[in-house]
Amino acid sequence: IDDPRNTDYLWAIIGISSLLGIILVLPIGGADMPVVVSLLNSLSGIAAAFTGFIIGNSVLIVAGSLVGASGLILTFIMCKAMNRTLPDVLFKSFGGSGEKASLTRTKVGSDADEVAMMLDGAQKVIIVPGYGMAVSQCQHQVKEFADIISEKYDTEVSYAIHPVAGRMPGHMNVLLAEANVPYEQLIEMDEINSEFPDCDVALVIGANDTTNPAARSGEGPLAGMPIIDADQARTVVIIKRSLSVGYAGVDNDLFYMDKTMMMFGDGKKMMTELNNAIKES
Question: What is the pTM of this model?
Fold first, then answer.
């Protein structure tokens, strides 16, 4: 740069960088966003480290290296949890970009009173939070639900956490921690899947692709992705706005099983109605 006061170069670099970021991220499906967020955090740390080398700032070098390394490690851990490689995430457009399955099946919804009646006597309940819980911000109602059935029915309650549930790493953990859910009740997918056959009720709140049995079939965009085995529970209660597909565009067979009860509506509203129904029962 001949003239350091000339800002044209700076604006050109900003424009090219912004365009590159848009082109890189735009084709990536929503289901892969937690991986992408982790990767971008890593790249921001690497950029900070390079800046430290340029201006001779040791603090920037050390801090940037730590952020870059930890972000990259987390990215590969999440890719492994999804049974996908990083190039697949970046270049194969996993979720939401392909043609979505057309819905031809129907399911009759259940109301809060029916679900409350079924919960009476349940000894073990596993709550499966998903992106729908984040959208409706119903984590406090979920915590209240767990407290009510624990006190009223002496029910054992735990939470099944999928590593890529939500839109960023640890999304569900942050929301549930905000609602003061005990940390020991938050159990990772690999540890809790073996407990579902002994579970009386699995309560799925806004989770779709992470509970879709189609992932076990070996075909389609979800093939090979580890899922939460909610379908192994004796009864499944799903709170969701509709029967629409998730970001992978695959219809969820779990919705149509005989043992599944669907509560259609906003997560916060449905959880509030369910809590009130349990209190009144």
Answer: 0.77
